[in-house]
Amino acid sequence: MSTTLEKAIRERREEIVSLWRGKVFDRLSDKISPGTPIGDAFVEGMAMILDGFASGDGSLRREGVTTVARILAVHPFRPSHALSMFVDLKTVLLETVPGGEEGAECVRRIDETTLEAFDSFMEHRETIYRLKVEESQKRMHMQLRGKRS
To answer: Domain containing 63 — which CATH number?
Structure first.
């Protein structure tokens, strides 16, 4: 990302996080609430994503994506609903930072991050379903053992 955009994000970080957090919690308020441990971890993940954008640190951004995707995967959201938070980030960034060439690069990076988030979300969702199947199989095995005795 360009230095101008990174600088703008760093300078207006708190404002961007606040606006983004407001939009996301408005959409997800029935499942994730601000001020709760889950909500705080979610906001921390959002901040890591934004800080990764501002510093160009891909590993920090990916860590934030993983944190957010893990929390979203536990809730019964459709992937499109859960990951619409990145559309909100795009809206907030395009409203608060300079446009032009930097804006196009910003959109590209957010789209890339959205796809990474989708992959992470689905990996976590698959893990949850796999664990549910394994637990169900164990329960069934225990019930069958009990009937034989």
So the answer is: 1.10.490
Burial class (CB within 10 angstroms; exposed 0-12, middle 13-18, buried 19+) of 54: buried
Residue 132 lies in a domain: no
Q: Read off the pLDDT of residues 62-113 as tens digits, 9 standing for 90 and up.
A: 999 999 999 999 998 899 999 999 999 999 988 887 666 777 878 888 999 9
Mean pLDDT, residues 121-144: 92
∠ Cα 114 120 123 (to 5°): 145
Question: Is 103 within a domain?
Answer: yes
Please state the domain count of the chain. 1
Q: Which residues contact 19 (CB under 8 A, 6 or more apart)?
A: 92, 95, 96
pTM for the model stands at 0.83
